[in-house]
Amino acid sequence: MITLNWNGLEVLSAMVESVAESVAKLHGRLIVFDNGSTDGSEKVVADRWKDTSWFSLIKSPDNLGFAAGANRAIQSVDAEVIVLANSDTVFLPGSLQILLEAVENYPSAGIIGPKLLWPDRTLQPSLRDFPFPGNLFAEHFPVPGRKPAVKNPHTDEQEVDWLVGAVMVFRRDVFLAAGGFDEEFFFYHEETELQYRLFLQGYRSVFVPQAEVVHVEGASARKKFGRETYLQYIQAKLKFLRKHGYTGSSALFRLFMGLLQGYRLAAGIVRPALPRNDIRYTAPYCRKAFRELFRRNRRDY
User: Fold this and answer.
1) Which residues of the chain form CATH 3.90.550.10?
2) Average pLDDT, consecutive stretches of 10 residues, N- to C-terminus, the chain (301 residues)
3) Is the whole model's pTM more than 0.70, yes or no?
4) Are strands 204-215 and 89-91 parallel, antiparallel or unpaired?
5) Residue whose C-alpha is closest to residue 283's, from 272, 294, 293
6) Which of 39, 47, 117, 181 makes a 20 to 30 Å CA pair with 246?
């Protein structure tokens, strides 16, 4: 099991605590790969678990980003199965064992993931369609005959295009054969791009709702990017479309996202209570998103 950490003082200890007993019973290992933290979070967990046989710490002097850090950590181990979890996750009892059993039950799975929950234990939707413009449009606006994966019931085991990568379980040899994470993706959609390559190779992403994991979502990203975290999604989607999209898909994406920003801006003005805690409905965010989408001489990252 591997978790990446960057200044996760508020969350990392809870993550390790939630899997400690299970990892020990399964005779597994937990590796914390620290991406150049400066808050001492890696030292807190290292001091707490240093006398155990299953815990180890790998320190990078710099923040390599999620994709590069995960690649380094996975390359450093020889385990057959990898559980890659964000530092802002908490595994509910029995969930780790359920995920490992699912690896045996789904030999054609490229990625297996659990049901994600918000800290208040309500559902955090994690099923997604690949982010091509048509799918993104159907996700935000009603389209006859189309039901976005994000709106599927999160109650049954099912195959989807891709799963939100807060927790990903996979065979190490499959991951390495696919080339690992694309390190051009510093934050966001590195799991999407990997799952798309696995999809092209015949593997599927499988959702296992019997395993439940609480996910704070974006704890490290918010520390790095603050209120502009959502802009990183725009950049990452454009990277994905540059690599895997069809002719004109980036232009369609920019057009659709521009219309969406206009809708959000209007909604935020007309119904200010609607997006109470969502900066995507505020004028400053929408202006920045417009600039990001339509600035001149962009190279789609």
Assistant:
1) 2-222
2) 96 98 97 97 96 97 95 97 98 98 97 98 97 89 88 96 98 98 91 98 98 80 53 86 91 82 67 54 70 63 48
3) yes
4) antiparallel
5) 272
6) 181
